[in-house]
TrEMBL record:
Keywords: Glycosyltransferase, Ligase, Phosphoprotein, Pyridine nucleotide biosynthesis, Transferase
Gene Ontology terms describing biological process: NAD+ biosynthetic process via the salvage pathway
Name used for this protein in its record: Nicotinate phosphoribosyltransferase
Species per Swiss-Prot/TrEMBL record: Cecembia lonarensis (strain CCUG 58316 / KCTC 22772 / LW9)
Recorded superkingdom: Bacteria
Residue span, Nicotinate phosphoribosyltransferase C-terminal domain: 374-479
Length: 493
């Protein structure tokens, strides 16, 4: 099957906040537009009060950057903007600059499906200051949402244990774009299939679905509806049994299942969409087993999330497949990840890089300066710790000290002997040219599975997870501290 790439075929250069354009104009006006800079995209807290986050959205970023340019109608729109005195907001020469501008940045990012943590760089952009600035809003828009949904999906799949989870959220998603991005991210996070047919076509995700209550209600009886559906889809019969009475619905499904069996076909299962899911699934399981259908699946839906699934598991509900919609695709309990994009370094006239830091009264909001990468230490396939470090740091040292970015009293020594090392940022664009071989959605999903398997179950539990160690390499911590003191005009004495 040919999978569609470049979901948005044209430029989305105006998908930005207006202040990005005003800053771009001011950079140009002050002669700074071509100065080189480095920006890092990162987040400060794991979502859902969890212990990890799953990266997603890079494929969209690749498409965005490949098509990043200002079209003539974009420039006409900007040209028509006026100040209060009716003068143009942007000079014609600036608009000509935008017209001729070609994407020329280096871009590094963690691969989709990678388990990531607060403060580590997810995306690093190096290039002309003006271009780096204009990428802020779209990159945040893409990463914030898809990473949030991939993480939510991973939590739900973890709660479901070995059962399949189906994403059913299209009708409740935040618009068409939100629905497509959510279906994609949910599959990366571990869902088996989606109800979203367009997502299936665009991304190569398996699609799944049977019928709704309206199908049953359109017939004179539930039994008649089941028979008609079985005639149409004899190989894919999962009957929705709770339109009128769940117990009677199971009886009718069994009756039609026996007719199918006489024809050499097999009923796949039933779905329950309301009521006491634990009670009715267990009762349905007994009825199906007694009737000779031990392999028939029981699918449950109805505003499920990881907490409800965990509760149903504890109640020993006889559910094999979970259909999760609203609370997955809307990230119902935390609707935003909160990733940010901060200037980390600028190149001086002599060619050296000057690290930059944003100072705040809240230590969590002090960014990490300099040109960074992150490395994951592991042993026998199990993650040990992650270290954020400055490029050029000697990773072959036998020991590193990592320091928590927020609480410097939390420190950990890492003896690297016998440990494997994995650099987390991969080169995606070099001087505006794509150098990264894009994996397909199934490879990305597999990457997420492998990444999650690296972490102890204590890091993945839903409530009060054990904190996985992530810290700044000691010299990076010292650099940040010195810069903060300098910016506050405090010498530390």
């Amino acid at each position: 099957m040919k999978i569609t790439k470049d979901l948005y075929q044209g430029s989305l250069a105006l998908l930005t906040d207006f202040y990005q354009l005003t800053m771009a104009y001011a950079y140009w006006k002050s002669g700074k537009s071509e100065e080189e800079a480095v920006f890092n995209l990162f987040f400060r807290k794991n979502p859902f009060q969890g212990g990890y986050t799953v990266a997603a959205g890079l494929d969209y970023i690749i498409d965005f950057c490949r098509n990043f340019r200002f079209e003539e109608d974009d420039l006409e729109y900007l040209r028509a903007m006026k100040n209060e005195d009716n003068s143009p907001v942007f000079e014609s020469a600036f608009l000509d600059y935008l017209k001729s501008m070609e994407f020329s940045c280096d871009l590094e990012a963690v691969e989709e499906g990678t388990v990531i943590f607060p403060h580590m760089p997810i995306v690093k952009v190096k290039g002309p200051l003006l271009q780096c600035q204009l990428l802020e809003t779209p990159l945040l828009n893409i990463i914030n949402f898809q990473t949030l949904i991939a993480t939510k999906a991973a939590r739900i799949v973890h709660a479901a244990q070995e059962d399949s989870v189906l994403e059913f959220g299209l009708r409740r998603a935040q618009g068409i774009d939100g629905a497509l991005a959510a279906s994609r991210a949910a599959f990366i996070g571990g869902c088996s299939a989606t109800s979203n047919v367009m997502a299936g076509k665009l991304f190569g995700i398996p699609v799944s679905g049977t019928h709704a209550h309206s199908w049953i209600m359109s017939f004179d009886s539930e039994l008649e509806a089941f028979k008609a559906y079985a005639a149409a889809f004899p190989d894919k019969c999962i009957f929705l049994v709770d339109t009128y009475d769940t117990v009677n619905g199971v009886r009718n499904a069994i009756e039609v299942g026996k007719v199918l069996r006489e024809k050499g076909k097999e009923m796949l299962g039933i779905r329950i969409d309301s009521g006491d899911l634990a009670y009715y699934s267990n009762l349905a399981r007994e009825m199906l087993d007694e009737a000779g259908f031990p392999n028939a699946k029981i699918v449950a839906s109805n505003d499920l999330d990881e907490q409800i699934i965990t509760s149903l598991k504890m109640q020993e509900a006889s559910i094999n497949v979970w259909g999760v919609g609203t609370k997955l695709v809307t990230a119902y309990d935390q609707p935003a990840l909160g990733a940010v994009y901060k200037l980390a370094a600028v190149k001086k006239a002599d060619g050296s890089w000057e690290p930059k830091v944003k100072v705040s009264q809240q230590s969590i909001k002090i960014n990490i300066p300099g040109i960074q990468n992150a490395v994951r230490f592991s042993k026998n396939g199990k993650a040990v710790a992650d270290m954020i470090f400055l490029e050029g740091e000697n990773l072959s040292k036998s020991q590193h000290m990592i320091i928590d970015p927020v609480d410097p009293t939390k420190r950990k020594k890492i003896n690297t002997t016998g440990l494997d090392q994995e650099l987390l940022l991969r080169s995606i664009f070099e001087k505006g040219k794509k150098v990264y071989e894009r994996p397909d959605i199934h490879q990305i999903k597999l990457n997420a599975e492998r990444n999650l398997a690296q972490f102890d179950k204590a890091h993945k539990r839903l409530i009060n997870p054990h904190i996985y160690p992530v810290g700044l390499e000691e010299s990076l911590y010292e650099l940040r501290t010195q810069l903060v003191f300098k910016m506050k005009n405090y010498d530390g004495a």
